[in-house]
Design goal:
This protein has 347 residues and is mostly beta strands. The protein contains one helix and 29 strands.
Length: 347
């Protein structure tokens, strides 16, 4: 008997839990704001043991109020890389309408000063920021297609679908390799049809059964949510050194000295200590006074470069006699080096 009683109690408990789960699921769906709910009460009674006609109460009616709730998160799991001077560098967020009424939203992106995001301390400011909505829902910012500015109407749903929002940043040209810039997206609930132009205000005072009152149900009860993301700056960090070596002199076969008539070689080395390649690295150098350029002596990364008065991508030995050289190294990879050499004769 005890076993049967325990089984019966367990079954009742499971049934109760199932009922509560069903109620919670129904509550999570949420009745749409503005829905009119009406009902009447019926009273049955007897007089002298004889049942009388039932009496029906007046109808009690109210409309469901607007529960403003939303969720904002970044989909980035680490800082997004960007280069100095780069435009439209994208961080991505999602906005979900978890309330019970169609809302539009005002989007505001701000440059965070200090603080930590993704474990990295913000140490770069001066970003130029704007917002865009993933209009074609492909997960990628498409210039000219995705809507710039605020977020239009999002309807509530039993299973709300997040809408992607992009924050677009222009990285300051003066940013340096290894810096981090944090950004914050603020999403404020606005009235439907206003495209974020008219913010929602919470209703005050007693509930009015005939009107749709507004209740802020977000975590802070202020009608908006925020989320943070971050940019990691990757750039070239060039260090340039110049050395000179005596190649020969008119008198010494070994250990030549820097005397008139001697040939010396200059080596210009570009070392990239950054995380991004440096491209179109243009090196210019004047031929020193009291020396004469040795024609055809320019090399780039060990390969001969033809003297030219017009082709700066190869080399230049300007003037007659030459007064300067100019050589472009197409690419100096991150953690890589490049060099240019040329020779002069001491007058």
């Amino acid at each position: 008997m005890k076993i049967a009683r325990h089984l019966k109690q367990a079954s009742l408990a499971l049934l109760l839990l199932s009922s509560l789960a069903g109620l919670q699921s129904a509550y999570a769906t949420g009745t749409v704001a503005g829905t009119s709910i009406s009902n009447q009460a019926t009273v049955n009674y007897s007089v002298g043991g004889i049942a009388q006609n039932p009496i029906t109460s007046s109808t009690a009616t109210f409309v469901v109020d607007n529960k403003v709730d939303l969720t904002v998160v970044t989909t980035n799991v680490a800082a997004v890389t960007g280069n100095p001077g780069q435009t439209a560098v994208v961080t991505t967020f999602t906005v979900t309408n978890t309330g019970n009424s169609t809302q539009s939203y005002k989007l505001t992106a701000t440059d965070i000063n200090g603080g930590t995001v993704f474990g990295n301390t913000d140490n770069l400011n001066g970003l130029t920021l704007s917002t865009a909505v993933d209009t074609n829902n492909n997960g990628t910012y498409d210039a000219g297609t995705d809507q710039i500015g605020n977020l239009g109407d999002i309807a509530p749903a039993a299973s709300p679908t997040p809408v992607r929002v992009f924050v677009l940043a222009t990285i300051p040209l003066g940013a340096t390799n290894g810096q981090f810039a944090s950004v914050r997206l603020k999403v404020e609930a606005a009235t439907a049809g206003s495209s974020g132009g008219t913010l929602v205000t919470e209703s005050t005072g007693a509930d009015n059964a005939a009107t749709v009152d507004v209740v802020f149900a977000d975590a802070a009860r202020n009608g908006f949510e925020e989320a943070d993301s971050q940019y990691a700056i990757q750039s070239a960090a060039l260090v340039v050194t110049k050395t000179v070596t005596v190649i020969s002199d008119p008198f010494n076969a070994t250990n030549p000295k820097a005397i008139p008539g001697a040939v010396v070689e200059y080596t210009i080395t570009v070392q990239n200590n950054g995380a991004a390649a440096a491209t179109n690295v243009a090196i210019a150098d004047n031929i020193p006074a009291n020396t004469t350029y040795v024609a055809g002596s320019i090399t780039r990364n060990g390969s001969a470069v033809t003297d030219s008065s017009s082709d700066g991508d190869n080399g230049q030995a300007n003037g007659s006699p030459a007064t300067s050289i100019a050589v472009t190294i197409a690419n100096v990879a991150a953690a890589g080096t490049g060099n240019v050499k040329f020779r002069v004769t001491i007058n």
